[in-house]
Hints:
By secondary structure, the protein is of the alpha/beta class. Helices cover about 45% and strands about 20% of the residues. Strands 2-1-3-4-5 form a five-stranded parallel sheet, with helices on both faces. A four-stranded antiparallel sheet has the order 6-7-8-9, with helices on one face. α3 links the parallel β3 and β4. α2 (about 35-45) runs parallel beside α3, α4 runs parallel beside α8 and α6 (about 160-170) crosses α8 (about 195-210). The longest helix is centred in the middle third of the chain and has 19 residues, at about 110-125.
Amino acid sequence: MSKQIAIVEDEPAILANYTDALTRQGYQVNGYSNRDEGLGAFRIRLPDLVVLDIGLGDDVDGGFELCRELRAMSVTLPIIFLTARDSDLDTVSGLRLGADDYLTKDISLAHLTARIAALFHRLEVMQQPVAQEKIIERGPLRIDMDRLQVTWRDNPVELTVTELWFVHALANHPCHVRSREQLMEAANILVDSTSISTHVKRIRRKFEQIDPDFDAIETVYGMGYRWKV
């Protein structure tokens, strides 16, 4: 069965263009012109991936709010911001809300479809059977890629797809510094250093909600990050 993609975009011509391009790639595509319309559909059934604009008509930050609501429904649903807004503040805000990717509308359709395919590929890889001995355990940390699950002190940590790959990349090589480039390669994304830092801060906060003394992710200034054991 083909993957279902939802696009929330208030410009009819842009929505039609993206819908046509992704349909030709074999996806089932549903388009929505505003937050309420999209949210109503998502409450009935979640798609396999969502592409969001930020400004939705008079709702200048409607995409941000919709991202927040989607994350409350699912922590693993791939979410991509596709917007004309390219400021660092907007990028950081989108990633802090849990988006897996943040793209600007000057990218090519080929680039967009490649990023979507990469997100689906990551999900497929994580859902492949994993032998018990391949499950990563680092002290109180346990990563089960078969179930898309991370636990800390036996408590589930709700991570997005991108965050899960970051934790996996760090914990799979404990005590070794992983550069920002290596983390991007592991998560199959291409973002700037500010975006990487935002992802790591969000990951830390999620662990700290379970364990206020969490300090397993160490920043090595000028080099990257490492998982302490």
